[in-house]
């Protein structure tokens, strides 16, 4: 028997721990719920890094669960929320870890994904499901939870709102790094995951960096972490661009805080990256972004407001490396081949960059005095 939905929920729990790009795509749904029930309390259980990104967001209580703490951390979270009873739980994380975590949260209504989108036995841990939505973008999938509560999908998708908080210290950090230069922010490497081949080539990035400098006067800033793979990628890019002199890319690996990166992206003229957190951070901030997609389906996971500017080699990769047509595979299928991203050419990335800069020139000039407006 289904648990009845509360007509006016007083306390909503959102469970989504990771990842950076996904929590960016979830923010508009949280904003929509707050608009619908402005008196409701919203508690969002997030991961440690995701908390760093979202901290300061207005109208939402963030509760951190660090995955590294395992079951001990779960027990601590349950104890901290021991006196809290939620009117409903939006179980938006398709993982067994998150489902186990959900067991210690006190609520009668537990809403999860429909059977087609559910993974890791999530339906065993919920008592209501959202309606099926074949071929939904990730952002739309999150909004489906709001629709299950009675909100209008078309209306909410027409007024998406993020308003991520960027503190003054992060603004100063970004301003100091840019030093007045017009920026192309490039995050060349996605987070390493098993057989997730999302990274493009150093040679491709170098060609785009040279084009951006000579054609548009953009200085490229290379962002990311300090892993060996990222260091090797950036070192190779810099070696290929050494002849550019003052137009050579700036290495920012490990030199920005997460909020500092957010501020940097907010001030950038354009962002270029593969399917990873920075493309969705740019989308959330209104910064023009060219996403590079071959191993993941951009119709499902591209930066939502900039889908028309994605370099999309996913259908070609499916045919070349999976030996199928795109309509023969599941919506979220990944092309797990190390050569898939090589289908993307520097010429088509440069063409999309030119088109995006041209199409956003008027907006960019109007917002030049406030780089956080896009």
Furnish the topology, listing elements before pairings.
Blueprint: E1 11-15, H1 20-36, E2 41-46, H2 48-54, E3 61-64, H3 70-80, E4 85-86, E5 88-91, H4 96-102, E6 106-107, E7 110-112, E8 128-129, H5 138-148, H6 153-157, H7 168-178, E9 183-186, H8 202-216, E10 219-222, H9 228-240, E11 250-251, H10 258-267, E12 270-274, H11 277-285, E13 289-293, H12 298-301, E14 311-312, H13 314-322, H14 346-359, H15 361-366
Parallel strand pairs: 1-2, 1-5, 2-3, 4-6, 5-7, 7-8, 9-10, 9-12, 10-11, 12-13, 13-14
Helix pairs in contact: 1-5, 1-11, 7-10, 8-9, 8-14
What does the model show?
It contains 15 helices and 14 strands. A 6-stranded parallel β-sheet has the order 3-2-1-5-7-8. The model is unreliable at 368-374 (pLDDT under 50). The N and C termini lie far apart (47 Å). The chain is α/β, with parallel strands linked by helices. It is 40% helix and 13% strand. Strand 2, helix 2 and strand 3 (61-64) form a beta-alpha-beta unit. It is globular.
